[in-house]
Specification:
This protein has two helices and 21 strands. With about 350 residues, the protein is mainly β. The strands form three sheets. Strands 2, 3, 4, 5, 6, 7, 8, 9, 10, 11 and 12 form an eleven-stranded antiparallel β-sheet that branches. The chain has an eight-stranded antiparallel β-sheet with strand order 1-14-19-16-17-18-15-21, with helices on one face. A two-stranded antiparallel ribbon has the order 13-20.
């Protein structure tokens, strides 16, 4: 039977992920929003002597490990909901245009980087924590990669142990006394994007972080109506040469049943597993039985990565149009005719 596919982009929110991603790699971009919270109300009228943001490298990169990391820090101007925003829901008007700090260099394994921040911005954070009517609110900062970046690097987020989380070291003076304040509680989100042109020809791709997902459709006209489906197994093949899958990534895929073809909403999830180094398999008996009996419309299945929120790894598969038919997705259905 005929199988067709449709790769599509589904921007996701990865609030709560283990890493903050920042940088550029070719046509890929990852920018991060970071807002330090839990600031006490005792630091109003403090004079900021110095302020420094520290990020600890989580030993994750996409895709050039020794590439240059370059980004600027800008003020977030609006009260954005870090738990819901996606790449396509914000634009340049949400952020300031004056750099508050910057970093440019090669980030090495198990290292940390320091970015000197604008003192006035940090003072605004302290003042707004003490006074709810203070005009310059703390909506966070944007880490915006520069065009000179040649890699996307992952830094530990607040969702890690205390010794790994991002923090700001503030040296301040108040009442003629100098002291140090550590801000180490934060909200954060990474916003990543890439054009659909990155998908290789005659392939479909499942990409974490952005995310790219796929839809497979099946022409069931060859299947006799009103039969009992004993087994429906789909197999599809990974192209390792074009994929980028780090050791940390869970290689399971999530298969869903499409309920709305325009919005691509799905349900009835099941996992697909690797049979070997390249071949995936998933049993779809309940879905095909519902389609064949007319209990559900046959709108196809969705495919996405189980580890979709955590990094930028991508899985590239041979599509139904690939020249070598042995590598195309294959569906095997075993059925029993119902007695009349």
């Amino acid at each position: 039977m005929n199988i067709s596919n449709e790769n599509y982009k589904k921007f996701i929110n990865n609030f709560g992920a283990l890493k903050i991603l920042v940088g550029r790699y070719k046509n890929y971009e990852s920018k991060a929003l970071l807002k330090f919270t839990g600031i006490g109300a005792d630091y109003d009228s403090a004079v900021i002597i110095s302020s420094k943001l520290t990020l600890k490298y989580a030993d994750y990169y996409f895709k050039e490990k020794t590439g240059m990391t370059s980004f600027n820090v800008y003020r977030v101007l609006d009260d954005l909901n870090y738990t819901t925003i996606t790449y396509d829901s914000v634009n340049s008007s949400n952020f300031g245009s004056t750099s508050l700090g910057n970093y440019n260099g090669v980030v090495n394994d198990s290292s940390s980087i320091d970015i000197t921040l604008d003192n006035q911005t940090v003072r605004d954070w302290l003042e707004s924590a003490a006074d709810s009517t203070y005009p310059n609110r703390n909506y966070g900062i944007l880490l915006q990669p520069e065009m000179s970046s040649s890699v996307i690097k992952g830094f530990y987020s607040f969702n890690n142990t205390t010794d790994l989380v991002p923090f700001v070291t503030v040296i301040y003076s108040k009442n003629n006394e100098t002291d140090t304040l550590i801000l180490n509680k934060s909200d954060y989100v990474t916003l990543s994007d890439a054009p659909v042109s990155i998908i290789p020809q005659d392939r479909f791709m499942l990409q974490n972080g952005i995310a790219f997902r796929n839809l497979l459709r099946f022409d069931l006209t060859k299947l006799p109506p009103n039969v009992i489906i004993n087994n429906a197994t789909l197999e599809f093949t990974l192209d390792n040469s074009l994929s980028f899958i780090s050791a940390e990534t869970d290689k399971r895929l999530v298969i869903g049943t499409i309920l709305d073809s325009s919005l691509k909403t799905d349900s009835l999830y099941t996992d697909a597993f690797l049979l070997d180094s390249i071949k995936y398999s998933v049993s779809l008996n309940p879905v095909f039985q519902r389609w064949n009996s007319g209990n559900l419309p046959n709108l196809g299945i969705s495919m996405k990565n189980l580890f979709e929120l955590q990094n930028l790894d991508n899985f590239v598969f041979y599509s139904p149009s690939y020249a070598d038919t042995t590598k195309r997705p294959r569906l095997k259905i075993t059925y029993t005719p119902r007695s009349q």
